[in-house]
What does this fold into?
Amino acid sequence: MTEPIHLNGRAHAGTLADTAVPPQPQPVIQVTDMVKDYSRGSSVVHALRSISLRVQTGEFVAVMGPSGSGKSTFMNMLGCLDRPTSGSYVLDGVEVTSLKRDQLADLRGKKLGFIFQGFNLLARMNVLENVMLPMVYGAIPTPIRQQRGKVALDAVGLASRMYHRPMEMSGGQQQRVAIARALVNAPSLILADEPTGNLDSRTSVEIMAILQRLNQVGATIVLFTHEPDIAAYCSRTVVFRDGVIQSDQYNSRPLSAAEALANWPTSGDAEEAA
Ligand code: ADP
It folds into this structure.
């Protein structure tokens, strides 16, 4: 019997239920009046101009906006990779802005899972070892880490590939490994930075289907994307422009990636789903 992964207090043992979870009242993200200024020579760049945003447990949010609008800066703030010039950021009940560097790193490891455009897997490690990496700093015995790694890989349909090297896998499979790695510590928040940016359109929808399934069993996801087609699978879209939130809209009927895949036209260049 494998140990279940807990997403926001909800357990699943590798099999993902299809029931939608309504957003809970507890916010995972509470950003208030966040400002980030960069100095560039003698001038100041106002990258974020008093951003306020609340994201509840169980939301699936797309962040969009043109180049230079402040998305990466905001992603770095949400990911506890940088500190704002002023304002408040409460992540799952913890005020982030007053933490020291090592406390930030600790918080990142415990509460956040990251998915990147370029997958960021270590080539010299096999898939399971890559997925186990975020647990390396915790005092978790190896058998438990292996077990959790296998459950996370099962959740993305790759349990059978755990001893493969990343380079032996397709881009879509590598991104699924990266999703398993993001899940393995049962984070409060998954941050996805252009997760489909390096993938063809069908593989992108496969990745969105996995993210939608995880969201349906409780994962809170904030996904940064340039692509409206990808944002259409999310239940809320926040658009940045010139360092402010230009719009913030809920989508009560997001597209279903599973349905899109079921109706996908047969095509020679579609990547094989493992
Ligand atoms: P986006 O991700 O939407 O393209 P960014 O957050 O990267 O936007 O950038 C917002 C603004 O902040 C831009 O004007 C950019 O040039 C500036 N900026 C970002 N990072 C730095 C930095 N480290 N130093 C100076 N200016 C920066």
